[in-house]
Write a structure and sequence with these properties.
Structural class of chain B: alpha/beta
Largest interface: A-B, 47 and 44 residues
Distance between the termini of chain B: 220 Å
Shape of chain A: elongated
Number of strands of chain A: 0
Modified residues (4-aspartylphosphate) (chain B): 741
Oligomer: heterodimer
Enzyme class (chain B): transferase
Radius of gyration of chain B: 65 Å
CATH superfamily of the largest domain in chain B: Histidine kinase-like ATPase, C-terminal domain
Number of helices of chain B: 24
Number of strands of chain B: 27
GO molecular function (chain B): phosphorelay sensor kinase activity
Number of domains of chain B: 5
CATH class of the largest domain in chain B: Alpha Beta
Shape of chain B: rod-shaped
CATH architecture of chain A: Up-down Bundle
CATH architecture of the largest domain in chain B: 2-Layer Sandwich
Keywords (chain B): Coiled coil, Phosphoprotein, Two-component regulatory system
Strand content of chain A: under 5%
Number of domains of chain A: 1
Strand content of chain B: 15-25%
Pfam family, one (chain B): PAS_3
Number of helices of chain A: 5
Radius of gyration of chain A: 16 Å
CATH topology of chain A: Four Helix Bundle (Hemerythrin (Met), subunit A)
CATH superfamily of chain A: HPT domain
Chain lengths: 136, 814
């Protein structure tokens, strides 16, 4: 991500590898750790988001979205970060249907991030993405 | 002629006077007098005589009249008065019967013959009433005769002793007594001869007893043996009673004796038989006691085995339950929770079954106790269906459930036993039913109210299948323990045969009954009717689960079966429902609290999809769909909330709707797990003692990131988790630079900066550069940062070069 460049939904990547390179340099193991840490953190946050949504706590939704947004941005989960920012705003606006839709979309985007992390691991280990751990 | 004194009575006069007095005396003695001369037929009868025989004194009465008046059987006795060659002074006496005033009386007639000089015979005599003496003699004779008959009949000997004037005892006994002791006729009345017959062992005691009776007057009552001349020993029972004279001296002894050898023999045989019987009873008792002890030992062994088995199976099952419990405490998706719940229910059911094995013993021993507590039939049904649906699904059997919506939520009874019965019967139904190319296997659990009043509800649980069925002749014995329909059944289907026996016994124990209707190859219907007390805790009206909930039901199916059932259950819990067809959905449907879409078949999914997308943003949507179509619907509408049907229990429906009302959004997050990704954690670089930078950041990932970045740039830092923690660090260390997030819990970066600046002024400390590192990118955020006293502002994520630049800018100011 370049400072001053406005993101749009269309050109955002699921997992922009360059972001982490810009942040901490070329340290693949550390980058992988950050990605995994992010996904764990994202799952916990998503559970909190669902809980707060069901409880009707829009401020809670907004705070949690903001919290996760910076992590997503840090690991290069650009689409997720974008959606979280939108959720942050929707929470502030107390737009319930939009919040619901965004939470569902965030979950989908996180699934895609997960897929990207797994695919990247497989390719780095010399396996095709579809082979997974069972390939010899 | 010799002269006499006129004042002196003459001899004749004296004789007449004497005769007159004698006649009066005889008359006073009720003795009649008579005289009769046969030759002349002349006779005389005294007045007394006529009075005695009831003849008027003045009426003429002849001797022939007397004979005529005599009883015909006695008239012959009168022939003596016509006899010839009678001698003077000879007496002729006899008794005769006369009828006097219609009573037959006995008279004693006495006569004496006198013969005159002219050879004439005259009879002079008396007649007296001897009826009393005659009757006494007759009675005495009869008594003696009777006594002798009795003694003869009883073969009872009679004996007696009498003290004579010389104070000697004279002994007498009759012929029967002599026969009893086999004595000769000359031995009769000989006490010595009798004494020799006594058995030597009994002789002294008998003689002593006899002596005692004669001296003290005590009754003699002895049983003793007698040794007969032929060596035979007989048993005699003798009894006697003493008699006393006017001076109360013991004067005589009357006794009897009876040969009771036959009785003693029978008694001895009976005693022997009794002894043998007692011996057999004793032996049998010992055998039974041993058998009982062996049975008790076996029972103890069985109990120990059951206890051990129960323990050995329970222990791991408890571990399974514990693990599931821990698992359920962690955050799970609804589907995962459902699986955990099913596993938990199955494990709990298994433990209950272990208890049931022990229960059959309790039932048979009459020791089974029933609990009376409030319980929910709907919960039991839901529990059983959850356990058995996977089994039915695996066998491609259609498992359906039909619950009466009017059954109260709580009834009082033994929930465990009810569940056990349904569990067993439903398990059997699924076991003996299958789906083939020709027939779809179906099992229906139907629960409805049979009758109820203010105290009791009678509920019928029917388990209906179209499985293999049972022949009539084997239906009755199915409720006997360890009995299955046929041996082939056990071979093919397994099982202990305990289930129906337990069900039958439990139903009976609860005051209910179980019935079976079945035909081979046409399935079976087990119907259990059980009475339950109305719950006492429901005396006050409680709030229904779905009170004031408006539910719009859109039925996309052609059938209205599911719709009717759903509506009944929802309304029974206080929900207000409106039902629509897809083509007439009103514009104001979104005013309802939720929409329940009934879409049993996938044929209506395109229509369902349109409706879903049309209303999903405006109102809660719950889709009731057959379990078979769930995966199809998931692919079509991944974010939809689904209520599985076929089967669908009342509890499942109500809880799903309630949960859905309370928790609108449910997402499956297991898909985000990355546990299978191999990662070697890289240790963090050691932090040197020279720490000049404080990072205030609540997000662990951002903390880790900035620590890594600072480390890359050659700086070490302390970490604070929020503004309060940041102030604490600032107070303890003189940092050259503070990098802080803005949005944090407890105290955000803005307020932390304000406080630090205030404290710096208060303590006249040198100002520490504070740089905001924030994810906020709103217009005006930078100005806001600077207004709170921060020195600079950078956006997250901060690039390494930007971080280097900002540190060099502020860190260098030192």
């Amino acid at each position: 991500m370049k400072n001053g460049t406005r993101m749009t939904e269309k050109n955002l990547e699921i997992l922009n590898k360059n972001i982490m390179l810009d942040l901490i340099g070329d340290d693949p193991v550390m980058i992988k750790q950050f990605e995994i840490d992010f996904l764990k953190q994202a799952k916990e946050s998503l559970q909190k988001l669902i809980l707060m949504y069901n409880q009707g706590s829009f401020s809670g939704v907004k705070e949690e979205a903001h919290f996760l947004k910076t992590s997503a941005a840090a690991v290069g989960a650009e689409q997720t970060s974008y959606l979280l920012k939108a959720l942050e705003l929707s929470g502030e606006e107390e737009d319930k249907p939009k919040c619901k839709r965004l939470i569902v979309n965030i979950k989908t985007s996180l699934q895609q991030v997960r897929g990207a992390i797994i695919d990247d691991s497989a390719s780095n280990s010399g396996l095709s993405p579809s082979q997974g751990d069972n390939a010899s | 002629m010799q002269s006499q004194n006129k004042n002196q009575p003459s001899k004749i006069e004296l004789s007449e006077s004497k005769l007159l007095r004698l006649s009066d005396a005889i008359s006073q003695a009720n003795i009649g007098m008579w005289e009769y001369t046969p030759d002349t037929q002349k006779c005389y009868f005294s007045g007394k005589l006529k009075e005695l025989i009831g003849v008027s004194i003045t009426s003429p009465f002849t001797f022939s009249d007397l004979k005529e008046k005599t009883h015909p059987n006695d008239q012959g006795k009168f022939d003596v008065f016509n006899a010839e060659n009678l001698q003077s002074n000879t007496q002729h006496n006899f008794d005769l019967r006369l009828t006097v005033n219609k009573d037959e009386l006995w008279f004693s007639l006495k006569s004496q013959v006198s013969i005159s000089q002219d050879k004439k015979v005259t009879f002079t005599g008396t007649l007296s009433d001897c009826t009393c003496a005659k009757e006494t003699a007759s009675a005495l004779k009869l008594a003696i005769h009777t006594k002798n008959n009795i003694l003869d009949a009883g073969n009872i000997g009679q004996w007696q002793a009498e003290r004579n004037e010389k104070d000697q005892w004279i002994w007498r006994w009759d012929k029967r007594t002599n026969e009893v002791f086999a004595q000769q006729s000359q031995d009769i009345d000989s006490l010595n001869a009798w004494g020799k017959r006594l058995h030597p062992d009994d002789q002294q005691s008998v003689l002593n007893a006899l002596k005692l009776s004669l001296t003290t007057g005590e009754q003699f009552d002895e049983q003793y043996r007698t040794l007969l001349p032929n060596g035979e020993i007989i048993n005699v029972h003798a009894k006697a009673k003493i008699g006393r004279d006017n001076q109360n001296n013991i004067s005589w002894l009357d006794g009897i004796c009876v040969n009771q050898t036959a009785f003693f023999k029978i008694q001895a045989e009976l005693q022997e038989a009794n002894n043998q019987a007692e011996a057999r009873v004793h032996k049998r008792t010992q055998e039974l006691q041993q058998a009982k002890e062996r049975a008790e030992q076996a029972n103890q062994t069985k109990s120990a085995f059951l206890s051990m088995m129960s323990h050995e199976l329970r222990t791991p099952m408890n571990a399974v339950l514990g693990s599931l419990d821990l698992l359920s405490l962690s955050k799970q998706t609804p589907e995962s929770k459902d699986l955990i719940e099913t596993a938990t229910t199955s494990a709990q059911n298994l433990i209950v079954i272990l208890n049931d094995i022990l229960d059959i013993n309790k039932i048979e021993a009459g020791k089974m106790q029933l609990e009376q507590r409030d319980f929910s039939i709907a919960e039991i049904i839901d529990n059983v269906i959850k356990v058995y649906y996977p089994i039915a699904d695996g066998k491609q059997i259609k498992l359906r459930v039909k619950e009466d919506p009017l059954i109260p939520n709580l009834l009082e009874g033994d929930a465990v036993k009810v569940r056990q019965i349904i569990f067993n019967l439903l398990g059997n139904a699924l076991k003996f039913t299958s789906t083939t190319a020709e027939k779809q296997g179906e099992v229906l659990l139907d629960i409805h109210i049979v009758e109820h009043n203010n105290i009791i509800y009678k509920i019928a649980f029917s388990i209906i299948d179209n499985g293999i069925g049972i022949e009539k002749k084997t239906q009755q014995k199915l409720f006997t323990p360890f009995i299955q329909a046929q041996l082939s059944t056990t071979r093919e289907y397994g099982g202990t045969g305990l289930g129906l026996a337990i069900c039958g016994n439990l139903a009976q124990l609860m005051g209910g009954q179980i019935s079976l209707t079945s035909s081979p190859n046409e399935g079976a219907t087990f119907k259990v009717e059980l009475p339950f007390w109305r719950s006492k805790s429901q005396t006050s009206p409680s709030q229904d689960l779905l009170d004031n909930t408006n539910i719009a039901v859109i039925n996309l199916d052609e059938s209205e079966n599911l719709q009717q059932s759903v509506i009944q259950h929802l309304e029974s819990e206080g929900a207000q429902t409106r039902v629509f067809k897809p083509e007439n959905i009103p514009a104001n449907i979104a005013e309802s609290d939720m929409i329940l879409l009934l879409a049993h078949s996938d044929k209506v999914f395109p229509q369902l999809e349109n409706i879903y997308h049309q209303y999903v943003d405006d109102i809660r949507l719950l889709i009731a769909v057959s379990r078979e179509e769930i995966s199809t619907l998931r692919n079509l509408l991944p974010q939809s909330t689904i209520l599985p049907t076929s089967p669908m229990t009342r509890l499942q429906l109500l809880n799903s709707v309630k949960n859905f009302m309370d928790n609108e959004l449910c997402l499956e997050l297991d898909e985000l797990e990355l546990d299978d990704l191999p990662i070697t954690p890289k240790p963090m670089e050691e932090i040197s003692d020279q720490v000049n930078v404080l990072v205030v950041e609540d997000n662990p990932l951002n903390q880790k990131l900035i620590v890594k970045q600072l480390s890359t740039l050659g700086y070490q830092c302390d970490l604070a988790k929020d503004g309060l923690d940041g102030i604490k660090h600032w107070e303890n260390t003189d940092y050259k630079l503070i990098l802080t997030d803005c949005h944090m819990p407890n105290l955000d970066g803005y307020d932390m900066t304000k406080r630090i600046r205030d404290l710096e002024k208060q303590y006249s400390k040198k100002s520490t550069p504070i740089v905001a590192v924030t994810g906020a990118a709103m217009t005006g955020d930078e100005d806001h940062c600077l207004s709170t006293g921060m020195n600079d502002f950078v956006s997250k994520p901060i690039l390494l070069k930007d971080l280097k630049q900002v540190i060099e800018k502020w860190y260098a100011n030192d």
